[in-house]
Amino acid sequence: MLVKLAAVFWTVGLTCGSPSHGENEQSFGYDSGELDPLHWATEYKTCSGKYQSPIDIEENLVTKVNLPLLRFHNIDTLPTSTIITNNGHTVVLQLNYTAPVMISGGPLTPAYKFNQLHFHWGVNDSLGSEDLINNHSYPMELHMVFSNTDYDDDKIALTKNDGLVVLAMFFEITKEDNLVYSEIVDSLAQINMPDQSTHLPVGFTIRSMLPVSTEHYFTYKGSLTTPPCLEVVQWIDFKHPIKLSHNQVQAFRMLRSKHGQLTHNSRPVQELSGRPVWYNVGGFASLNTPIIERSCASPFGLVMSDIILLLGCKLVALMLF
Ligand SMILES: *[C@@H]1O[C@H](CO)[C@@H](O)[C@H](O)[C@H]1NC(C)=O
Ligand SMILES: *[C@@H]1O[C@H](CO)[C@@H](O)[C@H](O)[C@H]1NC(C)=O
Ligand SMILES: *[C@@H]1O[C@H](CO)[C@@H](O)[C@H](O)[C@H]1NC(C)=O
Ligand SMILES: [Zn+2]
Fold it and tell me: For the CA atoms of 222, 226, 228, 233, what is the dihedral angle to 10 degrees?
């Protein structure tokens, strides 16, 4: 049992970006064959769970809500150091800051601390994102992973169903290069092979990576999209995509995995299994006072603005729990 758990954390370390050199690294992939997503559950039983990610989000089936403002903390400072790694499955960036980058508010009760960010992409510009919107796939998706500050460390967070939050951002193709991504894209040539890492001399602020509006997002409970697929993630998918040029996305497809070229790394969509998906319509700040906002900040204190205004937060919270 201990060995099994160790294996689980080992692999999570990999998918969460710790550069590593173990044999386990080879134990999942995306190309058809015995390591492909359809076979992940053979080695990782938890990948056959009921509430897995990614999913297809159908806009006409989501529940519209008006959540407290999603708050970002310390996202305007440059990191003191940034390491970019090709871990054989994705490109992962780890950043050190003088003060921790955190998010709170929105659907979140405690604050969550930034951990790492990484990307998913497809073989061409017509697909590549993991979550789909109305069955539409974007060419690339960014995942910023945050861990619950109520738990002592990230390994404990991985055992709790409110352990992680992932902010997901979609990309769409535009003619112009996105200069925020220049340093990342330029560094990819230095991490062509799996397990290669390099420092980014400048780095970037987290704010510069966010879409123009963070008010409009889909949110649902799901899993890590790589083995062991633990169902510990509150997903927050921003509606507004970020622009990137074809050449910038193409640079990611040139990287190597352990098995060949890392042309794509998206898990296919999983069954919704009756889960609710919420869509935040925004505008909370203009409708509510800060005091109400605080008492509303509970997980799935997800209520329509009208209901909040009519009943008040406490009552709604009682109804929900
Ligand atoms: C962050 O700082 C720690 C301690 O100095 C160091 O070991 C680690 O490599 C740094 N990480 C990054 C991403 O620079
Ligand atoms: C993109 O790749 C997918 C998957 O291989 C393929 O089905 C599709 O036809 C390709 N689209 C274009 C425009 O090449
Ligand atoms: C989404 O696409 C899949 C595969 O093309 C199809 O089977 C499914 O019915 C579509 N879902 C919706 C809601 O259109
Ligand atoms: Zn991811």
Answer: -30
CA-CA distance, 171 to 211, in Å (whole number)? 10
Report the separation in Å between the CA atom of 134 and the middle of ligand 3, taken as the mean of its atom positions.
9
* Catalytically annotated residues: 89
**Alpha carbon distance 200, 184 (integer Å):** 7
Atom in ligand 3 nearest the alpha carbon of residue 132: 1
Nearest residue to 13 via CA among 131, 98, 104, 94? 94
Q: How far apart are CA 94 and CA 315, in angstroms?
A: 42
The residue whose CA is least distant from atom 14 of ligand 2 is: 124
Task: pLDDT band for 127, please (50, 70, 90 cuts).
Answer: very high
Distance CA 285, CA 131 (A): 28
Residue 233 belongs to what H/E stretch? strand 233-238
Q: Could you tell me the pTM of the whole model?
A: 0.84
From first CA to last CA, the distance across the chain in angstroms is 34
Position 308 scores a pLDDT of 39
Q: What angle do CA 271, 276, 282 make, to 5 degrees?
A: 130
In degrees, rounded to 5, the angle at the alpha carbon of residue 118 between the alpha carbons of residues 116 and 121 is 170
Residues near ligand 3 (Cβ within 6 A): 56, 58, 135
Ligand nearest to the CA of 128: 2
Question: Where is pLDDT greater, at 304 or 202?
Answer: 202
Tokens of 12: 């999570």
The mean pLDDT of the chain is: 85
Residue 10: pLDDT over 80:
no
The stretch 62-68 carries a mean pLDDT of: 96
d(CA 68, CA 108): 9
SS3 assignment, position 142: strand
Residues having C-beta closer than 5 Å to ion ligand 4: 143
Instruction: Please identify which residue in the block is written with the tokens 């005091």.
Output: 291
Distance CA 129, CA 190 (A): 25
Q: Which secondary structure element, helix H or strand E, spans residue 265, and what is its range?
A: none
Interatomic CA distance for residues 173 and 246, integer angstroms: 6
Over its C-alpha atoms, the chain yields an Rg (Å, rounded) of: 19
